[in-house]
Write a structure and sequence with these properties.
The protein is an alpha+beta fold. 33% of the residues lie in helices and 18% in strands. The protein contains five helices and four strands; from the N terminus they run βααβαααββ.
Amino acid sequence: MHHHGYLWTGPKERFDNEALRRPPHPEPPPAGSRPELIQRYREVSAEFPTIDLPPLETAYWLIKPRSLVLGTWDEAKEAAAWLGERLAEYAPRFASEAERDSTHLTLLVNAAAGRLLSGADVSYGFYLERPAFLSLAAVTCSPNRADTGAACPLARP
């Protein structure tokens, strides 16, 4: 078991485009469906696996391009430390003063270490200076509890 780190920052309005943050339905729209529905299905099918937007379900990071993996660690504490470093880096830009509190950030890192050690994923999101958003994730890989069939994005072909 190991862990991959992901980070995304960008405009909140882009983050709010949930259709591109979820995988397409396994079945395409039936024949005779409205053209706009068919077009939207094609768009989501093509873009979801490659777009850098954080997926609604953390485990889906594993199907995104390997270039989005910002770090890989064998130990949960190392992955949690990376999250802590990113939190410290972005904390001055957090929209909420309470979220900038160092005690709060330490609690988040400690909770992340525990979750990752248990084989779970960790995903944190923060509003930054308006209207931006920060998404941080550490995803357990090989296997992932939420998606046991997910292949490691860094596996060699």
